[in-house]
Amino acid sequence: MPDRLGQERDKKRSKTLLTIAGVLVALNVLIFLFVPTQRSISYDEDAVIYSVSDESYEKPCHVTLEGTLTQSVLLKDSFYGTLYVTDVPGMDEAMTLRLTRQNGAWEGYLYDWAGQILATGVWDVEATKDFEHVTIAFATTYERTGSQVQASFDRGSATFLSLGAPNRAYALRQLQELILKQN
Q1: Out of 3, 22, 25, 121, which could bridge 89 as a Cys pair, Cβ 3.0 to 4.6 Å?
Q2: Contact 43, 63 (CB under 8 A)
Q3: 154 and 106 belong to one structural domain
């Protein structure tokens, strides 16, 4: 009889521990689904602007990209930060960059301090999902007439940079991936 009571107590304790473990697993899954993760992204480095059509074109510049990458299972991933590239038309200072991940590509705009969308020499910013590789394509034409700004992009004569790219071939491959994601 005493042995039977000990076994029943052990079964009850096992059930209780199993229930607690199940609740903890369910709670972890819920937290994973509903609580987004945030990570700081920071690039402050020298880079080279390359041209698609001219293999000898190399223009040194400095890129500062800082912001917060927010990733969520249920919501769209987003990036909110600032971007500054030296010697790019229309970028006299760091601009606010807001991107949202849609259909496997980042989409968004550069904004001024008042929240107005800007037309600058930066045509597009693309990155891997975790911002490990960042590619920036520049407008092929940029004209300012008074308060009017016009910018256009031609893939055949585009200029671009890829942060961390060791050479033109690698940067060009990153640009091609950017263009493929947009189609």
Answers
A1: 121
A2: yes
A3: yes
